[in-house]
Design goal:
- The chain folds into 5 domains: 5-108, Phosphatidylinositol 3-kinase Catalytic Subunit, Chain A, domain 1 (Ubiquitin-like (UB roll)), CATH 3.10.20.90; 111-278, no CATH class; 306-427 and 507-543, Nucleotidyltransferase, domain 5 (2-Layer Sandwich); 430-492; 557-634, no CATH class.
- Helix content is 35%, strand content 19%.
- The strands form 5 sheets. The protein has a 7-stranded mixed β-sheet, with helices on both faces.
- By secondary structure, the chain is of the alpha+beta class.
- Helix 12 runs antiparallel to helix 13 (479-487).
- InterPro entries: MULE_transposase_dom (IPR018289), PB1_dom (IPR000270), Transposase_MuDR (IPR004332), Znf_PMZ (IPR006564), Znf_SWIM (IPR007527).
- Pfam families: DBD_Tnp_Mut, MULE, PB1, SWIM.
- Residues 591-623 form the SWIM-type domain.
């Protein structure tokens, strides 16, 4: 298409099919058309796709094929990639774009059944179907990290071997290792003469990467059931561990059904039971070790950083969470930051088992300032309530705080319950996404864009009149949408009605900050997560403190630049004095400024805490000092107070290593579950049995056997 524009067919929800010649085609799913050009930003393109397929912008990747090449998928990840895609396909009538979900490896099925056989080699644990058998459609549950092809990166040889074993089980073939060490792993199909082969080794960047892969099987042996014996107990334990952690009542029969459905393996009950026992034992050990380390670490935080708060709480269902607030952060917030706190729940990319519950503020330069954080297994009402109670008890001074958060998980009620005199506003980013979800396909994209822009004006409107004008504009397009806007409680998100002070901040990007901090290659433990955050905060406070020592202006640099820009606009305004402290300022409209009460009828002075251009015109007319009419939180002096304190290092002397005693250990409850059926009641007068009592081969106690043993593994 001429003019640097192309028509894309955006496809989502299907799967790739590999043909006999190695080319790929896309089968199934949903398809929608969209026109793009070279000037479109990647973020805009991704946002359109997110809205089109109702998916989070972080939840998918974008790929396409080059013209006349259906074997290699090209990834679009930035503005330059998007421009190149438009240029490469400029002569094509349409271009197919594939929207693929992240964290789930796409299923590539062959148009002709792959021939594979079975070997009873002692190093593998997979089975293969007979020639021409119908392939089992497997779910993606628990299959993250499977083999996808050349260039895939792993944390090391062990994760690669684990993924290879999953891949073999999923695709029903067995393999053997030709080379297997820390530097390189080479595997071949266990059937002699088969061409399937894979090789992975460390790259120049020290990453363990797949270098070569021939994914074609040329073997034709018949399946042997002996392949099932290669599905070891440890392999089963690794597969089910995550689900067992979330569901302690996960039964062996359910394990068998899941392995059959997801991997095509027909194991027996004993294999599932033993695998479950191993997984349960490992979970118990890791839980106790994590508790011991966390308890030690919390004590060390309070010893090395007096005034800090570090609390570890455990529950009877083997769940625990930790709350940390450093003295330097608490002091910086109370003496230098605006009384504004953002509450965010952040899923960690480095360790998906945990979520960060964080309270962040903003400093005088509008940078994120972490106040406190908690690591928990889930974002629940109880966890948020516990977090807020700990946060309130950590503060040494009382003041009215404005909280901003998403509208979910009972935070509105929890904030009102713990901080009675506070204000609570909605995260505007989430609110706008909710508004977009109300827009159906009956409107064109241009109309949708106008409606979204009008709704954003509702949010940022400082006066009730401005808000009503925006609602009227929305009502002209849709009565239902205007009713939705009014029913969504504008008093807690619109500047025109909100009674708290947000100082022009409507949402937080804390998620990006914390995930960039915890960008570990290997999955970090809970203690590592807390310590990485501590180190990053320690570096942040030092660097910002040193930077502020070079400032010479009374206002912080960004605020000073903003005031200079507003002063230029103020010079064109006409000021009329009506009384000693009240002035009339004329531009397109007439605004009244009260220099004593820091008020202007445009309400921007009150909303942002900085003089608007009308107030600046009056200050200039009266020969006043601009600095005297700015909120104190924008002064360089207050910025330096924010970072005046330091976070101290924590020596690792006394670290609770494996087998070492831990001082003041916390009581870590074991994993427990309620047994099925009515609880047994011991008779008042038990009968004396004359039979010899059985002895359990598992726990060595008398009165039962291994199959009926109720002791934890």
């Amino acid at each position: 298409m001429a003019g640097g524009r192309i028509v894309t067919i955006c496809q989502f929800g299907g799967e790739f099919v590999t043909n006999s010649d190695g080319s790929m085609s896309y089968d199934g799913g949903d398809a929608k058309a969209m026109e793009i050009n070279r000037e479109m930003k990647f973020s805009e393109f991704k946002s359109e796709l997110s809205s089109m397929f109702d998916s989070s912008t972080d939840g998918f990747t974008i790929k396409y094929f080059l013209p006349n090449n259906k074997k290699t998928l090209i990834t679009v990840s930035n503005d330059n990639d998007l421009k190149r895609m438009v240029d490469f396909n400029a002569d094509s009538a349409t271009t197919d774009v594939y929207v693929l979900k992240k964290n789930r490896n796409r299923t590539i099925i062959r148009s002709t059944p792959a021939d594979s056989g079975t070997s009873t080699d002692g190093n593998t644990a997979v089975v293969a179907p007979r020639r021409g058998a119908k392939r089992l459609r497997l779910s993606t549950t628990g299959q993250e990290g499977l083999i996808t092809g050349v260039g895939q990166v792993f944390d090391g040889p062990k994760p690669f071997r684990d993924a290879l074993q999953k891949y073999g089980a999923t695709n029903n073939f067995s393999f053997k290792f030709i080379k297997n060490d820390a530097a390189s792993v080479i595997a071949e199909c266990s059937v002699e003469g088969c061409s399937w082969r894979i090789q992975a080794s460390r790259s120049a960047k020290k990453e363990f990467t797949i270098k070569k892969m021939n994914d074609t099987h040329t073997c034709g042996r018949v399946i042997s059931k002996e392949g099932h014996r290669l599905a070891s107990q440890q392999w089963v334990a690794n597969i089910i561990k995550d689900k067992l952690r979330d569901s302690p009542d996960y039964k062996p029969r359910e394990i068998l059904n899941d392995l059959q459905r997801e991997y095509g393996l027909n194991l027996n009950y004993a294999q599932a039971w033993r695998g479950r026992s191993i997984a349960e034992k490992e979970l118990n050990n890791s839980h106790k070790e994590a508790c011991d380390q966390l308890n030690w670490f919390c004590n060390r935080i309070m010893e090395t950083n007096p005034g800090s708060v570090a609390v570890l709480q455990t529950t009877g269902d083997m769940r625990f969470h930790v709350f940390v607030a450093f003295h330097a952060s608490l002091g910086g917030f109370e003496h230098g930051c605006r009384p504004l706190i953002f509450l965010d729940a952040i899923p960690l990319k480095a360790n998906k088992q945990w979520k960060l519950l964080v309270a962040t503020a903003v400093d005088g330069e509008n940078n994120i300032f972490p106040v406190s954080f908690s690591v928990a297994e889930a974002e629940t009402n109880d966890n948020w309530l516990w977090f807020l109670v700990q946060l309130k008890s950590a503060f040494s001074m009382s003041r009215t705080i404005t909280f901003v958060s998403n509208k979910q998980n009972g935070l509105e009620e929890a904030v009102a319950q713990v901080f009675e005199d506070s204000y609570h506003g909605y995260c505007v980013h989430q609110l706008i996404e909710n508004f977009k979800a109300e827009l159906d396909e009956s409107w064109t994209q241009e109309v949708k864009d106008v409606l979204v822009h009008t709704f954003e004006r509702c949010v940022f409107a400082c006066k009730v009149e401005e808000f009503n004008e925006c609602v009227t504009s929305i009502k002209a397009e849709s009565q239902e949408l205007s009713e939705w806007v009014l029913a969504s409680k504008p008093e807690i998100w619109s500047n025109a009605y909100f009674k708290g002070h947000r100082f022009g901040h409507y949402y937080s990007n804390a998620a990006d900050t914390f995930n960039n901090w915890i960008s570990m290659r290997y999955e970090p433990s809970l203690v590592q997560i807390v310590d990485v955050i501590r180190c990053k905060m320690m570096e942040m406070m030092y660097s910002r403190r040193e930077s502020s020592n070079t400032w010479t202006e009374a206002l912080t640099p960004s605020v000073n630049r903003r005031m200079e820009e507003e002063m230029v606009k103020a010079q064109a305004l006409n000021v009329v004095c009506t009384s000693g402290s009240v002035f009339e300022v004329q531009d397109d409209s007439i605004n009244v400024v009260n220099i004593e009460t820091w008020e202007c009828t445009c309400r921007r002075w009150q909303v942002f805490g900085l003089p608007c251009m009308h107030a600046l015109a009056v200050i200039e007319r009266t020969d006043g000092c601009v600095y005297d009419f700015c909120s104190k939180y924008f002064l360089t002096e207050y910025f330096r107070s924010t970072y005046a304190l330091s976070i101290n290092p924590i020596p690792d002397a006394g670290w609770p290593g494996c087998g070492d005693p831990v001082h003041s250990p916390v009581s870590c409850p074991p994993r427990t579950r309620r047994m099925v059926g009515r609880p047994k009641v011991k008779p008042a007068t038990p009968r004396v049995s004359i039979k010899r009592s059985n002895r359990c081969g598992r726990c060595k106690s008398f009165g039962h056997n291994k199959q009926t043993c109720k002791s934890p593994a």
